Amino acid sequence: MSKFAIGEQVENVANDHESGAVVAVFPTVDGSFRYAVDTEGYGALQFFAEEKLTIAVSRRGAT
């Protein structure tokens, strides 16, 4: 079972905590998962391995 679901907000922990929404989940032949993420500011999908992502931390009200 995948760690993240379509529609969840995630952050890329490996690269300046880019965030975005999961739009697709793909199982790999070795049993892990890759995620297509619509990252904010890029206008294109980026693909990440599960270990590179975490649930996005809400930054509302931060100054």
Describe the structure using short key phrases.
single chain, SH3 type barrels, globular, 63 residues, five-stranded antiparallel β-sheet, 5 strands, mainly beta
What does this structure look like?
- This protein has 63 residues and is mainly β.
- It has one domain (9-55): SH3 type barrels.
- It contains no helices and 5 strands.
- The chain has strands spanning 9-12, 18-27, 33-39, 45-49, 53-55.
- It has a 5-stranded antiparallel β-sheet with strand order 4-3-2-1-5, with no helix packed on it.
- Strand 1 (9-12) and strand 2 (18-27) form a beta hairpin.
- It is globular, with a radius of gyration of 12 Å.
- The N and C termini lie far apart (37 Å).
- The mean pLDDT is 87.
CATH class: Mainly Beta
| Helicity level | under 10%
Briefly note the CATH topology name: SH3 type barrels
Rg (C-alpha, Å): 12 Å
Relative strand content: over 45%
Which structural class matches the secondary elements?
mainly beta
Along the chain, the helix and strand elements come as EEEEE
Number of strands: 5
Shape: globular
Identify the CATH architecture. Answer: Roll
Question: What low-confidence regions span 5 or more consecutive residues with pLDDT below 50?
Answer: none
* Count of alpha/pi helices: 0
Through-space gap between termini: 37 Å
- Spatial order of the strands in the main sheet? 4-3-2-1-5
Total domain modules? 1
Please write out the topology.
Elements: E1 9-12, E2 18-27, E3 33-39, E4 45-49, E5 53-55
Antiparallel strand pairs: 1-2, 1-5, 2-3, 3-4
